[in-house]
Amino acid sequence: MTPTADGETLAAVLELGTRLAAELQDTDTLGRWMAHYIAERLDSLEKLTGEQRADAEREVAGLVLGIWEQRRDLPTARPILAAVDTVDRALERLDAHREPWGYFGLFDGVAEPEAGEVEVNAALNIALSFDRAAGDLTRSLVGYAASVAHEHDAEWVEHAKQIGERAVFRQAVLQVDSSDDDASDGVHYSSAMLARTERVRQLLDALEAAVRDNRLD
Question: Can you tell me the distance from the alpha carbon of 115 to that of 131, in angstroms, rounded to the nearest whole number?
């Protein structure tokens, strides 16, 4: 992520710098030094005008973004965007457009069964269906976890949105896929999640029946 010519984005990055400086002020010696340095660089902008100020703003924005990219290692009381980052690490295998067998990764690095083989082999057929269904259900659950994470990290999430943080936007899309407007006792229930749960249950029932009847050949 680099500073752009977009004035709003640049202003958002500088505002993020102010927030980072405030957060680092009450940490350890290194954190307080960083807070002082960021604040000093931001204050120095007030003395500049024209192209000189524009160049300096881009330079300070680059500094802020560099610190932001290392946010997990900052000496803050709690890692910045900790909940959001935890959810983001869970998303790697959950792309809605992942390849067959892509959730469990059973055939990573080796040849997958041919489509015709899957069609005639009941065990492979159920396994492939379960790979897709389990991945979709897990995606819904992680989407719900993302909504909780965004509430937990709300202030930092807002800053992250303003500077175009990819993880925040990716999780926002995931939440749309995983939640609805119905609520009970403050908990949102997703019709998609219920449907995916039912699909997994159906596959397990089919598997149980096939095993009992010796129909997995």
Answer: 15
Please write the tens of the pLDDT for every residue from 38-54.
999 999 999 999 999 99
CA distance 12 to 152: 21
Q: pTM of whole model > 0.90? A: no
* Cβ(177)–Cβ(165) below 8 Å: no
**Ranges of H-type helices in 26-80:** 29-44, 50-69
Beta-bridge partners for 188: 183
The whole-angstrom separation of Cα 182 and Cα 184 is: 7
Tokens describing residue 179? 């939640």
Q: Strands, DSSP E only, in the chain?
A: 183-184, 187-188
Cβ atoms of 65 and 2 within 8 Å: the answer is yes
Residue at 129: amino acid letter: S
Contact 200, 140 (CB under 8 A): no
